[in-house]
Design goal:
Layout (H helix, E strand, L loop, with lengths): L2 H38 L6 H8 L3 H7 L3 H6 L3 H12 L7 H15 L10 H10 L4 H23 L8 H20 L8 H14 L8
Helix pairs in contact: 1-2, 5-6, 5-8, 6-9, 6-10, 8-9, 9-10
């Protein structure tokens, strides 16, 4: 190996370590925000409390997040990324809805930290739906993930996501089924597991009859 190749390899390893450290710091602060919000209520949580819990400075927190709402919602970003990674890995001959459904099941069945496996997940999602101040941050994370899903589906179909509405329409239907299943899962008194609710939602989409036409 030449000296240039050695330096290049070391630079890549160093960059990888920095990336992991940044991600770990981000996740630590997001987890601290979730823990504090669930324990004390969002209104009682401050950025200073999150920074202290995560053992970082206020300045470091501000490099990652614009406020406590962004930090709390960021806990979901990694899950959306895993779903999209699973979607991109699905066989090319699957329809978009089937691919998204099976990507969700891959995430739910194979990811140890998937929502339905964590005791606090239901409480976090209920908080997201109950707190109006969290909605803008939540929608940003969701929209970013959905936009990536559209690009993945467009590539799978060989379509231009900017010119053809079908990838976006397919993703909207899939995300709607997912969101509906989540809403039922966190509803008071609901006992059905999230994976089964997701299966039911996608089955309902597949069974939806075509609209009748008249001459």
């Amino acid at each position: 190996m030449s000296s240039n190749e050695g330096r290049g390899s070391e630079a890549r390893r160093s960059e990888g370590r920095r990336t992991r450290k940044v991600q770990e710091s981000r996740e630590t602060m997001a987890d601290a925000a979730v823990d504090l919000a669930l324990a004390h209520g969002l209104d009682q949580v401050t950025v200073e409390m999150i920074s202290e819990r995560a053992d970082v400075s206020r300045r470091t927190f501000s490099r990652y997040f614009s406020g406590k709402e962004d930090a709390l919602v960021d806990a979901l970003r990694a899950d959306f990324a895993r779903i999209n990674a699973a979607l991109a890995a699905r066989p090319a001959d699957e329809s978009p809805l089937t691919a998204y459904h099976r990507a969700l099941r891959t995430w739910l069945d194979g990811e140890p930290t998937a929502w339905h496996r964590l005791p606090r997940s239901g409480d976090l999602l209920r908080l997201l739906h109950a707190e109006p101040s969290l909605l803008p941050a939540y929608l940003r994370v969701q929209d970013e993930a959905e936009a990536e899903s559209v690009l993945i589906v467009a590539r799978r179909l060989g379509m231009d996501a900017e010119r053809d509405l079908r990838p976006a329409l397919a993703v909207s239907l899939a995300v709607g089924a997912f969101a509906t299943a989540v809403r039922f899962w966190i509803a008071p008194g609901e006992s059905e597991p999230l994976p089964l609710l997701i299966d039911s939602a996608f089955a309902a989409l597949a069974a939806e009859p075509a609209p009748s036409t008249t001459d």
